[in-house]
Amino acid sequence: MSKPIVRFAPSPTGHIHIGNTRVALLNALYARREGGTFILRFDDTDLARSKQEYAESIQADLEWLGIPPDMTVRQSDRFELYDAAADRLKAVGRLYPCYETPEELEFRRKRQLARGLPPIYDRAALKLTDDERKALEKEGRRPHWRFRLEPTTVTWDDLVRGHCHVDCSSLSDPVLVREDATYLYTLPSVVDDIELNVTHVIRGEDHVTNTAVQIQIFDALGADAPTFAHHSLLITASGEGLSKRLGHLSIKGLRDAGLEPQAVASLAVLVGSAEAVRPVADQNDLTRLIDFAHISRAPAKFDESELDHLNARLIHEMPYDIARERLAQLGADEGETFWNAVRGNLTKVRDAVEWAKVVRGPVTPVIDDKAFIEAATKVLPADPWDAATWKAWTEAVKAATGVKGKALFMPLRLALTGLGHGPELAALLPLIGPERARARLSGQVA
Ligand code: GLU
To answer: Residue-wise over 287-297: b if at least 16 C-beta within 10 A, else e?
Structure first.
């Protein structure tokens, strides 16, 4: 089998969200697993709404997710190809000019509905004579162009949905070119898929009807249609769809919130699949879990708070060499022992900053029972301190004061860290070190 060529085709009209990420990851990881090519295609034929700033942020998001494209194209660079394809379709009578205004179309639609007829375009424009067309153009009307569908049932074997069929006689002939000569997405997408030899179109199930139309366009242009996989869409716990325009769970926002790319990727890929949603730290492992045949047909519901859980679970296992650079950027790289001591208490890597400060100071100690702390200070073990120091010390405190359990640990924790919670003191104590520990126990900010 030839290597797959796939594409992720966002319109750069907003920041991409976690749902778009599902599409991007399924494409990119599938291509990677099969040794294929992952193309980023900007669907920017809508020049007014497309923005360079969004294109750049999408590129950055893909980099962050660890799926940089092998190739990037922009539809706005490719209008000549679309014009040539449109001319070919016009020449064979598959693309025809229509002159109805939106109001006229709406009026007809209402009339059809009132008569109990399906509101599909009646193809009145196909019956116009040359003279009638000229007369309309003289009135100042400019045509939009519709693709004449064959009234057949289009079928395909979808990698997710199995055997699919759409009866095209129940669809309106789709508009491919607007009155102002700009293209809707439908034709350019097919032209690019042909020209870039795309083998698999992996996209959301909101495109199923487009697929029937596009298969007819592939056919009309003399090309074989690629293989299709329409996966379920992500919806929020309250059942809402995600919207780029609403800025819902944008990748940029999730990144700024300090989430790990693999937490986002694990959720985006595994929700609505046969696999349990769990943090998969290694992208290659996630790649192996993609199985189109077992993506559920129902919308994939997820709870935003799952992201924090997944993130925390990833961090609890995260090796120091992966965390190190990020810790350094945060000014919180206190070495491997430190990382191993605190990672179990973190939800985000950035939370390590708080614990770096606890180790390094300055910490304002909290001391309620001065006498107890003084008694404890007297039995502090001698230097050097190590992982066994805490146990030795607390046993000595217990022997000296008769205090035990939480009544013993909590005042020491509060004095040493200024906080009532945190990582094991056995691990923190040697990191704090005798000098700072003594100072804090004596009530100094250190
Ligand atoms: N620009 C389209 C979208 O974002 C691409 C759909 C496709 O993959 O063909 O929905």
So the answer is: bebbebeebee
Residue 66 within a domain: no
Q: What is the pLDDT of residue 369?
A: 96
Q: What is d(CA 59, CA 40) in angstroms, rounded to the nearest whole number?
A: 9
Give the list of residues 6+ apart from residue 132 with CB closer than 8 angstroms, or none: none
333, 360, 387 - which closes a domain: 360
**Ligand 1 atom having least distance to the Cα of 201:** 8
Task: Give a three-class secondary structure readout of 260-286.
Answer: CHHHHHHHHHHCCCCCCCCCCCCHHHH
pLDDT digits (tens, 9 = 90+) for 80-111: 999 999 999 999 999 999 999 999 999 999 99
Q: Which residues line ligand 1 (CB under 6 A)?
A: 9-11, 43, 185, 189, 201, 203, 207
> Could you tell me if 377 and 421 lie in one domain?
yes
- The enclosing domain of 410 has a CATH number of 1.10.10.350
User: Structural domain of residue 356, as residue ranges?
Assistant: 320-360
Distance CA 379, CA 38 (A): 64
Query: Quick check: pTM over 0.85?
Result: yes
H helix and E strand count, the chain: 18, 12
Q: What is the DSSP string of 96-164?
A: EEE---HHHHHHHHHHHHHTT-------GGGG--HHHHHHHHHTT---EEEE---SSEEEEEETTTEEE
Tell me whether strands 37-42 and 5-8 are parallel, antiparallel or unpaired.
Answer: parallel
How many angstroms is it from 257 CA to the middle of ligand 1?
27
Q: Are residues 381 and 407 in the same domain?
A: yes
In Å, what is the CA distance from 260 to each residue of 26, 88, 281, 307, 319? Answer: 18, 48, 9, 9, 14
Percentages helix, strand, coil for the chain (3-state, rounded to 5) are: 50, 15, 40
